[in-house]
Amino acid sequence: MQKRTLDAAVLSDIHLGTYGCHAKELLAFLKSIDPGILILNGDIIDGWAFSKKYFPEAHMAVISEFFKMMKKGTKIIYITGNHDEFLRKYTDIQMGNLLLTDKYLLEKNGKKHWIFHGDIFDHTTKGSAKIIARIGGIGYDWLILLNRAVNYMLKIFGKGKVSLSKKIKNSVKKAVKFISDFESKAIELALDHQYDYVICGHIHQPSDRIITTEKGSVHYLNSGDWIENLSWLELEKGQWTLNFYDEKKYRKQKIKTKEKAIDLNDFFRFQKEDVATV
After folding, report:
1. pTM of the model
2. Parallel, antiparallel, or unpaired for β 216-222 and 197-200?
3. Which among 109, 101, 118 is positioned nearest to 196, based on CA atoms?
4. pLDDT value of position 112
5. Contact, 60 vs 27, CB < 8 A?
């Protein structure tokens, strides 16, 4: 299958190392594109849930594909999020085609893009509240596993898929308000700084909308996640599009499902002589 050439692609909230991650589907997508820039907008490797007992070869294959893309010329911008905050001690270092940072300003086609994960707006990821958030993350993983079992049974009976977590989020007023407040803060700050685009992740809520106020106009984009929505953003010929994975359009990847231990330091061991401060 011929790869599609893209100016840029944005992925976020992949959560490698968790049971909910759709690594095989992501790998199929990655093998179908040839982007000039690939922006990984936070929570790519889930340091909160990371365990040497669970890191399947499909998850390893995704990391390997990132390295293959860099070797072929793709510039990868890795923006750290709250789940991969262990990498923030390496912020603003560059090694070859890999830039690790906590935010990124992209100027493309005369437009200014402000790209960041979004956990800066979330007080539950900081201080003592982080402990509760981590516990909630474990519960979320189990909910995703339960959801997969439910969808498996629904498929047998010819029924469509359901998302239990989405139903819970949509039924809880605080969750709905949090998402609304998150988007409002990102949009307001982007307008204050006169950015044309603001691109986030974090809330697992794909979005593509233009907001106009007395301050001006800004295009808000959220790449969603690879747990429930399997969504991403693409930039081609000056136009951003929000996309969702369709298994009918991609070649299935044959990957051994045998689990294996992994030491993340093998992948993120930045030697002083290899690092250039940006």
Report:
1. 0.76
2. parallel
3. 109
4. 96
5. no
